[in-house]
From TrEMBL:
Classification lineage: Eukaryota, Viridiplantae, Streptophyta, Embryophyta, Tracheophyta
Family statement drawn from the similarity comment of this UniProt entry: Belongs to the SDO1/SBDS family.
Record GO biological process: cytosolic ribosome assembly
PROSITE patterns on file: UPF0023 (PS01267)
Biased composition (Basic and acidic residues): 248-267, 347-358
Subcellular location: Cytoplasm; Nucleus
GO cellular component, one term: nucleus
One Pfam entry name: SBDS_C
Disordered as annotated region, ranges: 248-271, 331-358
Protein name per UniProt: Ribosome maturation protein SBDS
Domain U1-type stretches: 294-328
Amino acid sequence: MSRSLVQPVGQKRLTNVAVVRLKKFGNRFEIACYKNKVLSWRSGVEKDLDEVLQSQIVYSNVAKGVLAKSSDLKAAFGSDDQAKICLEILEKGELQVAGKERESQLSNQFRDIATIVMQKTINPETQRPYTISMIERLMHEIHFAVDPHSNSKKQALDVIRELQKHYPIKRSPMRLRLTLPKPNIDALEGKLSEWNTVIFSKDESASNFSIVCELDPGFFRDCDALVRNLLGRSEILAISVHGEGDIHADHYDGHEDVSSSESKKPAEPSIVELSEKMQKQTMAPKEDNNEGQVKQKICSTCDAVVGDAKQYREHFKSDWHKQNLKRKTRELPPLSAEECLADEELSDSKKDLNEYSF
């Protein structure tokens, strides 16, 4: 009985890889990468290119193992140096992800945008922020669609503008201290009245006059420019003021566009409050193990006790754990909950300043 011969396949099929695709001059070029490494490379966490690329070869179809033609590479990139072309595709190409992964990414980004909107807005009647679930519902009602290629904070500001057209919502005010010479105070007070600014206190010294006030963030740039022209200085006491508390920003190194005053170190009470909030969300209190008590789990990455099995799973989704994972890849020691949150709050505050005004 004759048997059919199995002919070898002349294609090298690559499966279970992350594909980065770039379309140029009507042709499609792809490179095969390791999963979860492309984003690490683009964020600057991963530096070794060999850890990102499966091979420095350009394909026209990675799944079928079809290589790109040299003539197409020269026409599109002006060269057939595959190493340089791989770098360009890695930087500019689109990462191909499965449907479920894309849905998960969009869902997480939608939640991040809603969180930013909640932090930056208040109900004008109660002077308190809306709940995260209410913000998400309002975003669905205005048919907001997440743009995965755009910054979450920029999209959050766009959402706020759109929500203000339909619902009672406004930006939470900034708290400022404005200091300038006495002869120029009248010009400043006239503008503050025009901007509907709430003045809390006035302090007069030998030659200067100081005002503590709450200002709509949309007028901050104009206000800071006016104070500079009047030979004064502005100091941010709180980026976002809510009825139930403030979100502080006490340290702004290198932000000459924001304040001409000297930078301050983070205030200890604010860091303590933030750390307590993080511990409630991600960490169970350390207690002596008594009989009948649920066994506490330890996260080796963060070097901390994180509670029972449910809290342990939630901990892996926290920013604290994610930041320590990045530090671990760079062989840095883990941060505590207080250090992590203080670092994030400081970093976010600096980035917000250039995006805060409409």
